Amino acid sequence: MGRKWNNIKEKKASKDANTSRIYAKFGLEIYVAARKGEPDPEANRALKVVLERAKTYNVPKAIIDRAIDKAKGSSDEIYEELRYEGFGPNGSMVIVDALTNNVNRTASSVRAAFSKNGGNMGVSGSVAYMFDATAVIGVEGKTIDEVMELMIEADVDVRDIVEEEDNVLVYAEPDQFYAVQEAFKNAGVTEFTVAELTMLAQNYVTLSDGQAQFDKMIDALEDLEDVQQVYHNVDDEE
Hints:
- Pfam families: TACO1_YebC_N, Transcrip_reg.
- By secondary structure, this protein is of the alpha+beta class.
- The protein has 3 domains: 5-72, Arc Repressor Mutant, subunit A (Orthogonal Bundle); 80-129 and 202-232, Alpha-Beta Plaits (2-Layer Sandwich), CATH 3.30.70; 132-201, YebC, transcriptional regulation domain (Alpha-Beta Plaits), CATH 3.30.70.980.
- It contains 8 helices and 8 strands.
- It has helices at residues 5-15, 20-36, 45-56, 61-72, 103-115, 144-153, 177-186, 211-222, and strands at residues 80-87, 93-100, 120-121, 131-140, 160-164, 167-172, 194-201, 227-232.
- It has a 4-stranded antiparallel beta sheet. A 4-stranded antiparallel beta sheet has the order 5-6-4-7.
- A hairpin with a 2-residue loop joins β5 (160-164) and β6.
- The chain is globular.
- The two termini are 17 Å apart.
């Protein structure tokens, strides 16, 4: 089921020579989550998820605090959560999640990123049905058997537990995100290599001639200011 999450994160970090771009995206996501409810992660589940994800990307505390303080203040900035679906070269499938204060700008930019790189946007639902919303939690220093025992003892329902390199990854329903983390924390685990709510493709495809063009399209989408996450079904593991 899994993909090499640490490798993906390392590639993303190395590709983003300016990590301030990652931090800016998290700052916006934290602000929007904090505006949805209480600006307190203990009382706002959506905010808590974002903060847990931010930890695995080493987002500085100053950026987190600034975003939460902004949400506490009088800012009246309103952002919409949007999802775009589309197709890349050779039938590859892509989901783009965005936060924007200008829907027309974002739609135009996403459409251009697709069309200029051999892809095209689809209608809502044209791609998402081939992906599963999934919580992924990763830890080091545990075996699969140890993690399985922890989940059973905590009565946590998981989809799969796999070992990838030096990590054990737990795949579960999105609403089990906290339950999985709490099971680990109760066992003394406080650091997570992966903590994501993501969209995993049900089946992955391998591109040949279209890989370079596909990579260019994904880069163009991820470079857009309003885009928060890009998911796809292309197996780009080396």
